[in-house]
Specification:
Elements (H helix, E strand, L loop, with lengths): L5 E2 L5 H4 L7 H14 L5 H4 L7 H7 L3 E2 L8 H22 L1 H12 L1 H4 L10
Parallel strand pairs: 1-2
Helix pairs in contact: 5-6
Length: 123
Amino acid sequence: MAAPLVKINSDSAKEIAGLYGIGSDLAERVAAYREANGYLHTPEELSKVEGVSKSLAVTLAPHVDWSEPREVEEGERSIFSVLSGVLILGFLLAFDYRNVWPQLLDILDSRHYGFYFPWYHTW
């Protein structure tokens, strides 16, 4: 099984140090160069880091993911959370319908999340 690619534009210096021929000092320089000059896209740009030769950069190239990190939009996570919650609720309703509503209302009760169900407390 092949080792996962090192994401040169987002991984920490500790993760970059896992590359063959890169020690912790050189990994710190790569991370500092990236912070100062922007993302790295090619082995030629990596070879501009002090201590990284062109031959080392070319050797490392197949083991490096050169893509820029993707920014996650704020609403993107919440949509996933809502959909996964609906899926879990549907599963509970389908397989444990007798016990799910009291448990769900306990979770949503005012003591936890600010909801209040006055009719629930009369059960």
